[in-house]
Design goal:
The complex is a heterodimer of chains A (146) and B (782). Chain A has 4 helices and 10 strands; from the N terminus they run βββββαβββαββαα. Chain A has 146 residues and is mainly β. The chains are: A mainly beta (146), B alpha/beta (782).
């Protein structure tokens, strides 16, 4: 198994995203709020004349509002169901190779981590939690119910 | 018919292309029944279609091959290369025919019999391929050049191209914005303009590829009507009008089911049985008309039957019984509103539930599906005379005319189709009252519920209630409510993209778009706004609207002249300031620095309305506008006519000459503010305000020598004595000036002082005369 992973930090924690779901990584050009949208939707941004829906990953994980909801924040651009999203992250580390298939984590995951994670993967830098892009976009359970 | 024919040709060509390979493979392996069957089916289909379209030659050809292949299938004949060649020859011939039909011309006579003869079993076929080849050569020479070709494309591909084009428009806008920020603009201006116009062309063409005639949809109706009326023992004649009207392909799919449903309803519930019709003095055959027409950027589809109409009393009873409305509300509803109850869920006036129209689920679904695409539906009915249903749908889904507004500095777009009118709080006649957390706005004599957009969206804003602009919005059912926004911007055509599901789920937004400066902007969903704001649509708005109906007589209207500006936009200007319409040669237009001037008759007027616009090549039409004191010209492309608008309906914080944006005939028009226009342009007093100077008609010296000087000094010269004269000049001794003259200048012929006439001026005392002219006028041109 040699799937490529994008290693990023969300809420201070180093995690992995499957690279095949990520189109590019960018800094947000701007951020326009969407009033009354679910809490994990940080707003709208643009990338090359495309409207991006910005997803606050920290918020989707149930860890509160991200402190960097503003232009210039790091984001991974993903296309899901025909819509372009920007996943708001703390920092982007780089690309790593998965050294194993995802395996269930040993302990019980806190907050929304369990809903957002496919499992753990082994990398050269040690084990990382592999998050699911679609789940981050769908947001925390309370947003899905709405 | 044309569409069907085009479909037939395209289908035939496709089958032909697929078949060539099959035929060769079949020749290699004559025992392959599957291939043989496929080939047989092709000729069978073509034969059937030819009969339908009346192509006897094509039919004869395919019939002949079908016969031969039937023999082969029945093992009466062994396929050999001769046979395959002959069949291939006929396939080519059919292909050629299809090409010529498509080009709209006739296929040359002759040659068919030889091809058919070649199919017959040959005793010894060894030399026959040669004969066939010769035959084909001969045919090739008689070929007619193919005309317009069509191809069939998967719809997904078209959609992808369309979305690519929309992206291209957005990318261009972004590029334009970046260019403006740099110093590059001057050097790339020309190619960039060219790029822009190419993109606009491509977008136009692409939009047209998505357009389809309603023909395809309408052509299924006669059959539907025939089947239904047979089933119901009714006689119905259908008339179809406007099948050539074009509509976005997607939109046609959206209206297909609702339209079918409405036609079913009309036949089932509207048109009576022949006996019942005769007893009421109608023709036994009912009439159903389906007509489409384009109106602005909307398509109107009417479904009119001459049946029994909607029984309003019964409808109201049912609505009361179902608890949809209460008796008080009913009492206040207009007849139109009561008829609209038919669109409420769970209502049907039919005595019996039939398999055709169901049990009243339907009209609400019809309305919902039309509203989902930004359309609306209206009903009108006269008992015993019939019912008219009018569907209004936008031409296309992707480009939406919208008004942009802002709250707390963030811009939002509102679909223009939902906007009824725009009002400003500070202008008289509107007042806002608060009642336990809700707001009512009194506009003229009607009270409408008001939603403050900033509150609804939870945005912090420091705009006071009185500074807000009020937008009266119309919901799908015709109910009105008011949306208060901080600021009004402009109207534009927006390329709208669907928003992410999480955003749509709020119910407040219909999509996203990019503004010209590259910011993402949300398109508000009007029905959703009302719903999220918790407006009680049933009770409040209908009654409010009722009030509005009552009060409509009291609304003060003002006439405006609607026209197309030189920039192609719809504009309106108050009738009161328009003096007349003139047309001048284009040479009459001059540019003087920043200002434009136009020579009309003997006057030079400032020209407005021509900035930024390209001037026509030959002649320019213009309005002559006057404020009573001054006159200016306003360049136009076309005058559309006089319309009445609400006198208090003026708005907008727009700069320039616009007073605001308002809806006239269902489309937005920019209302020109005469005040701002004159403030900016007027500098020349109008002719009638020139001081008048009387010169006796018979005095040739005065007329020839003095008149130019007088005119140059800013007087208008009259020869007849008028009641109000500012000045009179007299050159004959002893003569007295006209009675009405306020001032008189007397000229004497001698340079010596004249004791008997001390105030007179020597006729060649240039300086003296000039200063006298200046003094006496007092109202010299500025």
């Amino acid at each position: 198994m040699s799937a490529l992973l994008l290693t990023v930090a969300i809420a201070g924690e180093k995690v992995a995203l499957p690279v095949d779901h990520i189109e590019s990584v960018n800094e947000l050009e701007l951020l326009v709020p969407v009033p009354r949208s679910p809490s994990h939707i940080a707003g709208l941004s643009t990338l090359r004349s495309r409207v991006l829906t910005v997803v606050d990953c920290r918020c989707a994980l149930g860890l509160g509002i991200s402190p960097n909801r503003e232009a210039g924040a790091s984001a991974a651009i993903a296309v899901h169901d025909g819509h372009a999203y920007a996943l708001l992250l703390d920092t982007i580390h780089g690309v790593a190779e998965a050294r194993s298939d995802p395996f269930p984590p040993s302990g019980r995951l806190q907050n929304n981590w369990a809903d957002m994670a496919q499992g753990m993967v082994e990398t050269d830098d040690g084990p990382l939690l592999l998050l699911e892009v679609a789940a981050l976009i769908a947001g925390p359970p309370e947003a899905r119910a709405a | 018919m044309d569409d069907l024919f085009a479909d037939f040709l395209a289908e035939t060509r496709e089958m032909l292309e697929a078949l060539g390979g099959e035929l060769i493979a079949w020749e290699d392996d004559p025992g392959d029944r599957a291939r043989l069957d496929a080939i047989f089916r092709f000729f069978h289909t073509v034969k059937g279609n030819c009969g339908f379209f009346d192509f006897p030659r094509l039919e004869a050809l395919s019939h002949a091959v079908e016969d031969v292949l039937a023999d082969v299938r029945a093992d009466r004949r062994k396929p050999d290369s001769m046979l395959v060649s002959a069949v291939l020859g006929i396939i080519d011939r059919i292909g050629d025919m299809v090409d010529t039909f498509e080009g709209g011309s006739e296929f040359p006579e002759g040659g068919d019999q030889a091809l058919i003869a070649a199919l017959a079993p040959q005793g010894d076929g060894s030399n026959d391929p040669l004969r066939l080849a010769a035959l084909n050569d001969e045919l090739a020479q008689s070929k007619v050049p193919a005309g317009r070709r069509t191809i069939r494309l998967p719809v997904e591909l078209l959609d992808r191209v369309m979305s690519g084009v929309s992206d291209m428009v957005l990318a261009r806008n972004e590029l334009a914005r970046r260019l403006r920020e740099t110093s590059l603009e001057a050097s790339v201006h020309e190619p960039f303009d060219r790029l822009s116009s190419i993109i606009a062309d491509v977008r136009d063409a692409m939009t047209r590829t998505r357009m389809q005639c309603l023909e395809g949809l309408f052509s299924s109706f006669p059959r539907l009507v025939r089947d239904l009326s047979a089933e119901l023992d009714k006689q119905v004649q259908i008339e179809i009008d406007g099948a050539d009207v074009e509509l976005d392909r997607e939109m046609i799919e959206v209206i297909r089911n609702p339209l079918t449903h409405l036609i079913r309803n009309a036949i089932d519930h509207g048109i009576e049985a022949p006996a019942a019709r005769l007893s009421t003095g109608k023709r036994p055959v009912g009439r159903l008309c389906v007509g489409a027409r384009q109106s602005g950027n909307q398509i109107l589809i009417d479904i009119v039957d001459d049946g029994c109409g909607i029984n309003e009393a019964k409808l109201v009873d049912k609505a009361l019984a179902a608890g949809i409305v209460d008796p008080v509300t009913i009492g206040r509803m207009s007849a139109q509103d009561r008829l609209s109850l038919i669109f409420e869920p769970g209502l049907s006036t039919a005595e019996t539930v039939t398999a055709i129209s169901g049990r009243g689920v339907g009209m609400d679904v019809v309305r919902a599906s039309i509203e989902r695409v930004g359309g609306s539906i209206e009903v009108d009915s006269t008992p015993g005379q019939g019912t008219r249903l009018t569907l209004r749908v936008p031409l296309t889904l992707t480009i939406i005319p919208a008004l942009t507004v802002s709250i707390a500095g963030q811009k939002f777009a509102i679909p223009r189709s939902a906007i009824e009118e725009i009002a400003q709080v500070e202008t008289g006649g509107t007042e806002i009252t608060r009642h336990g957390g809700t707001m009512l706005v009194k506009i003229r004599d009607s009270r409408l519920p008001c939603v403050v957009l900033a509150d609804l969206l939870g945005c912090e804003t420091d705009a006071a209630d009185d500074d807000r602009t009020l937008i009266v919005l119309r919901l799908g059912g015709g109910e009105l409510f008011v949306l208060a926004v901080d600021c009004l911007h402009t109207h534009e055509e927006l390329v709208v993209k669907p928003a992410a599901p999480a955003i749509i789920a709020t119910g407040l937004y219909a999509g996203t778009t990019l503004t010209e400066d590259g910011l993402p902007m949300l398109l508000l969903e009007v029905n959703g706004l009302a719903k999220v704001a918790g407006l009680q649509l049933d009770a409040l708005e209908r009654s409010a609207r009722h009030d509005a109906h009552e009060a409509s007589g009291a609304v003060r209207t003002t006439p405006v002249l609607l026209f197309i500006g030189l920039d192609g936009r719809r504009k309106a200007i108050p009738m009161a300031v328009v003096d007349r319409l003139d047309e001048v040669e284009i040479d009459a237009v001059e540019t003087e620095g920043e200002r434009m001037l136009v020579v009309v008759g003997d006057r030079i007027l400032p020209l407005a309305g021509a900035d930024l616009a390209e001037l026509p090549e030959v002649s320019l039409r213009l309005f002559r506008l006057t404020d009573g004191m001054r006159e200016i010209g306003y360049a136009i492309r076309d005058a559309l006519g006089v319309r009445q608008i609400d006198a208090e309906l003026l708005a907008a914080e727009a700069d320039g000459e616009a007073e605001g944006v308002l809806l006239i005939d269902g489309e937005a028009a920019t209302l020109i503010s005469p005040y701002r226009l004159f403030a900016r342009h007027a500098a020349v007093p109008v002719r009638d305000e020139l001081p008048l100077c009387h010169l006796p008609a018979g005095d040739t010296w005065l007329q020839n020598f003095v008149r130019p000087m007088v005119e140059a000094a800013g007087y208008r010269v009259v020869e007849a004595a008028e009641a109000e004269l500012d000045l009179a000049i007299i050159a004959q001794p002893g003569e007295s000036g006209p009675a009405g003259a306020r001032q008189v200048i007397r000229l004497r012929s001698s340079a010596m002082e004249a004791p008997d006439d001390p105030d007179s001026i020597y006729r060649y005392d240039h300086t003296g005369l000039l200063s006298a002219l200046r003094q006496s006028g007092g109202r010299i041109r500025l």
